[in-house]
Design a protein that fits this description.
This protein is of the alpha/beta class and about 350 residues long. The chain has two domains: about 160 residues, Rossmann fold; about 190 residues, Glycogen Phosphorylase B (Rossmann fold, 3-Layer(aba) Sandwich), CATH 3.40.50. It contains 13 helices and 14 strands. A seven-stranded parallel β-sheet has the order 3-2-1-4-5-8-9. Strands 12-11-10-13-14 form a five-stranded parallel β-sheet. Helix 10 packs across helix 12. It is globular, with a radius of gyration of 20 Å.
């Protein structure tokens, strides 16, 4: 099976890791995954503009439906040469919904923009997928585009950590949830030790911060981070994410409020357990149970006396090491890229 993915890829954010792994794992299974376009510069990904030999087209939409490399003629070529029945839309950011506002976060700035997004997706395919077990719209199917790869796994050893906590991610509607974690750490800050945040938009505005965006999209409090002694480091490429998380005893898994509301997963949902760290899950228990099973519930940061949980991570690291091992086993069985590719082939076949 030959699949062409249409996706706007940025190598220091979004789903770059997923794109890279789909291509590698597909090749090992006797399939081929390529990206549509011609970037004109060296890339970690394999691109092509030849759509005539592709068995199906997978449109992966996050922050935009625009082609990264191409124009209206490219759109026409894609839609005319690959039948509608062989086209799939994966809506990663919950934009294939009515306009939603939740805790300062939005999927669309207006109902008109929501309607435009829906119309574009519907014009491409009848098969719309979202990475959630609970899609809001009846015509949307669940498909966990973000996957887990056991080859990522760093051997677990929680001794002699450089940092108590490491968070890797850019600030895009994430300040509220990261700040909530930091405030929970305050009573046990000395026990935690060094804290690192790696990514754009934490100690200064991110490159995409513009006045037209909602304030919560890029809000941060550099003075608070300085007061806590948090070390803020610049963004890194997708290949460095797991290595950086492995430098901390624990790494919080946080989403933007919209994703919590829609029960969406992200690439970080599965990268974090592969790192040599304790994934501290900051979602509601039902979501954690659905996605991570019983092992995941052991890693939830509770709302009541969260400082006790943090302290326990430092007092019983061997216990949590075994929990992470159990979690890795479940993720490999349920969310491996091989499983995702097989499921995608079934969806296309249907």
């Amino acid at each position: 099976m030959r699949l062409i993915f249409i996706h706007h890829v940025l190598e220091d954010r979004g789903s770059a890791q997923d794109m890279f792994r789909y291509a590698r794992v597909a090749q090992s299974m006797g399939h081929e995954v390529v990206l549509f376009g011609s970037p004109g510069r060296p890339s970690a990904f394999q691109y092509t503009t030849d759509v005539s030999s592709q068995d199906a087209a997978i449109f992966i939409f996050e922050f935009t439906t625009e082609l990264q490399y191409g124009d209206l003629l490219a759109w026409t070529r894609l839609l005319s040469r690959i039948p509608r029945s062989r086209r799939v839309v994966i809506d990663c950011d919950g934009k294939y919904n009515d306009a939603i506002q939740v805790t300062g976060d939005i999927n669309h700035a207006s109902a008109d923009l929501s309607r435009q997004w829906l119309e574009i997706c519907d014009s491409i395919s009848d098969t719309i997928l979202q990475p959630t077990y609970h899609p809001l719209r009846p015509n949307v199917r669940s498909f966990f585009f973000h996957g887990y790869d056991p080859s990522w796994e760093v051997p677990l050893d929680f001794d002699r950590k450089e940092f108590g906590m490491v968070y890797v991610g850019n600030n895009w509607f994430r300040w509220r949830n990261l700040c909530r974690v930091l405030r929970m750490l305050e009573p046990v800050l000395q026990r935690v030790g060094r804290i690192a945040i790696v990514g754009n938009g934490w100690d200064r505005p991110a490159p995409w911060a513009k006045p037209i965006l909602p304030k919560d999209a890029y809000y941060t409090d550099p003075e608070y981070l300085l007061r806590l002694g948090v070390e803020v480091l610049p963004p890194i490429r997708f290949e460095e994410v797991i290595g950086w998380m492995s430098r901390g005893l624990f790494s919080p898994v946080i989403y933007r409020p919209l994703f919590d509301h829609l029960n969406l997963v992200t690439c970080r949902s599965f990268e974090t357990p592969a790192a040599n760290t304790i994934p501290l899950l900051c979602q509601e228990q039902q979501f954690v149970s659905d996605v991570y099973g019983a092992a995941g519930l052991e890693l939830v940061l509770p709302l009541e006396r969260p400082e006790d949980k943090i302290t326990d991570l430092f007092e019983r690291p061997q216990h949590y090491l075994e929990v992470v091992r159990e979690l890795r086993h479940l993720l490999n069985e349920r969310y491996s890229y091989a499983a995702r590719i097989r499921e995608l082939a079934e969806i296309i076949g249907d």
